[in-house]
Automatic annotation (TrEMBL):
Residues 144-194 are annotated as: Disordered. It comes from the Bacteria. Residues 184-194 have a biased composition (Pro residues). Residues 171-183 have a biased composition (Low complexity). This is Uncharacterized protein.
Length: 194
């Protein structure tokens, strides 16, 4: 038996607990065979891709964490691409708020994130997973916000059915620079001259 394991679990009991709590658990057991003991870390997270990211950043090989769907399959390539990006670089963000609604009339998960890099474009993000109960698929989309208050407000508005479309994520400055233009010189430390 391996000394370390990695699991992404669906918590069926969460729906009966406090409204809105995450229904996905990332679990990382560690065994000490000599002492015949074990310890584990775990984290409730709103999206399977976020659970994958949490486990990858605790040593799980990225190619070993593929999941059987924990719910409806992705509806499109945009959903699959965002799931891969969240699993791969989810450690670039801190989760500030999430709400999971399993209301059969509107199955939705909203997550507000803050970029850990203060220079990131659209430093506050919202990720929204919506389930289409007719096709039994889900979509995952991301929007970008400039201020702390805007992201959770959009989430609240989405949960009450009053939100507009997600604003686009601003591209990074390097990506928006026209081709062929040189990069700006790196800033020099103060007090040094050429």
């Amino acid at each position: 038996m391996a000394a370390r394991s990695y699991y992404v679990l669906f918590d069926r009991t969460a729906t009966w607990g406090h409204p809105g709590v995450p229904q996905v658990l990332a679990v990382h057991p560690q065994r000490d065979h000599k002492r015949r003991t074990f310890s584990f870390e775990h984290a409730p997270l709103p999206l399977p891709a976020m659970a994958q990211s949490w486990l990858i950043h605790r040593g799980c090989p990225p190619d070993a964490i593929a999941l059987a769907p924990l719910g409806p399959p992705p509806a499109d390539e945009a959903t699959r691409a965002l799931e891969r990006r969240l699993a791969g670089n989810g450690d670039h963000y801190a989760m500030g708020y999430s709400y999971t609604s399993d209301d059969p009339e509107d199955i939705v998960i909203v997550v507000a994130l803050r970029a850990l890099d203060e220079r990131a474009p659209s430093p506050f993000r919202v990720v929204v997973e919506e389930v289409d109960t007719e096709t039994w698929t889900h979509t995952l989309r991301e929007g970008g916000f400039d201020t702390l208050g805007e992201a959770p407000q959009w989430c609240d508005d989405r949960l009450t059915g009053e939100s507009g479309p997600l604003p686009p994520v601003r591209p990074a400055a390097a990506a928006s620079r026209p081709a062929g233009l040189p990069k700006a010189p790196a800033p020099r430390p103060p007090g040094r001259s050429r």
